[in-house]
What does this fold into?
Amino acid sequence: MSRNAESTAFRSALEVIRAVEPRVADAIGAELADQRESLKLIASENYASPATLLTMGNWFSDKYAEGTVGRRFYAGCQNVDTVEALAAEHAKELFGASHAYVQPHSGIDANLVAFWAVLADRVESPALKKAQVRQVNDLTEADWFALRRELGNQRMLGMSLDAGGHLTHGFRPNISGKMFDQRSYGTDPATGLIDYDRVAEAAREFKPLILVAGYSAYPRKVNFRIMREIADSVGATFMVDMAHFAGLVAGKVFTGDFDPVPHAHIVTTTTHKSLRGPRGGMVLCGPELADQVDRGCPMVLGGPLPHVMAAKAVALAEARRPDFADYAQRIVDNAQALAEGLLRRGTTLVTGGTDNHLVLLDVSGHGLTGRQAEQALLDSGIVTNRNAVPQDRNGAWYTSGIRIGTPALTTRGLGTAEMDATAELIHTVLSQTTPGANADGTPSKAKYVLDPAVADSVAKQATDLLAGFPLYPTVTLD
Ligand SMILES: *Cc1c(COP(=O)(O)O)cnc(C)c1O
It folds into this structure.
C-alpha cells in the first residue's frame, strides 16, 4: 500500500462531504487539527488506526441485521455475517475466550447485555421460564408481576465510585442502580489498594447475585483469581468489566491472576479505549452464558452496527499482531515514568504509583479542586479529566483528583523521556495555579488564577514536545 493511500482516502471523503454540508467537513478537519495539537492524557481515549476509521464509512451502515450470525430476522445479511463472525473469531483468539458477542454499541450496552444474561440465567423464576420458551402469551398478569418482583430485587456488589468503580456497576445515575440492590467495596484508606479480605467480608454479608470487578480510575492491577474465589464462596456470578484495560489484557501485560478472561464467568469491555478500536462494546463468556448473551439484540440493544462490527474485526486483527504487545507494554512503561516524574516533583498520587495505564493525582496538596486543576491544565494545552479520589471531600462534581492515562500518547510514539517532560509541564501548571474567590469573597471550588503567560508557555512547550511525534503521519488534508 502506498503511503499516499491514507491521505487520498481521507481527502476524497472530505471532498465528497464538503459538497453537501461544508461545515461538517470543516469540523472533521478541525477535529484532526485539535487532536494533533493537544497533549491528550484522557485515560479512556486513544487514536484508532486509519484502517479502523475508514472501515466505518461505508454501506454496511445501511443494513439491518437483528439476530446473530446465520440466524437473522432480515434477509440479505451474508456480508454482515462475514464481518461479525470475523470480529468474534479475532476476539476469541485474542483473549482466549470461548464465546464473543461483538454487537454492543458501547461499554454501557455491553454491561446491560451481561446483566440481563446473568439475571436470565441465574434467577429462579417460573414466569421467566415461560417467557424464555416463547410462551409469552400464556403469561398471566400475576406472572408478569412475579417476574418483575423476582428480577428486580437482585443484588450486585461492585467497586465504589470514589475508589475508581464505574457508574454502570449499580450506581444511581445509571439504570443498573435502579435495577439492582447494590452495595460497593472500597479501597484501604492507608494504601489505596483493594483489600480482598474486606471484599470477601462484604460478599459474605451481602450475598450478591453478581460480583463485579473492573474500574475506570483505579491505577493498580486486580487479582481476578482471588475475586473469583470470593464469588464462588458465596455462589455469585463473577463479572469483570475490562473497558479500560482490555488493551493490556490483549497485549499480554496482564496475565495469570491478572487476566480476567480465565477467571470470570463473563467479561465486558469497550473496544475504543486501550484496545484502540472503533467506539463500541463487546461481551466474552463461556458456553453456559453464550445463548443468553446472544439475545442482547433485541433484548436490550437496538439493531447492530455492521460498519462498526467490521471495524472491530480490523482493530482486533491489529491487536493480534506482535507489535500490539509491544504497544501495551509501552503504555505501562509510560504511565510508570509519568508517575515517577510527578512523585519526584512532589505530587501526591493515589496508591503512590501505577501498574496499569493510568495515574490518579490528588491535587488537594496544591490547594486545588479537580475542577480547577482540569481547567488550568486545559488552558495550558493539556487535556485531562477531573476525577474523585477515595473519600473525596469535594464530591463527584468538583473532586480532588485528576486522572491521566497514556494509551493515546503512546500510540503517537511518545516514550519515557517525553513522559518526564510531561510531568514537568503538569507540575508547572499545578504549582502556578491558585484557587480563586467568589464575588462575595468566599473561596470558589471552580475559579482559579493562572498567569496567562505561564499557560501560554506550557502550551507552547507541549506543542513542541508533540512536534516530534506527528499524529496520523500518513495523513495530510491539504
Ligand atoms: C468507559 C467505561 C464504560 C462505558 O463505556 P461507554 O462506551 O462509554 O458506554 C463502562 N465501564 C467501564 C469500567 C468504563 O471505563
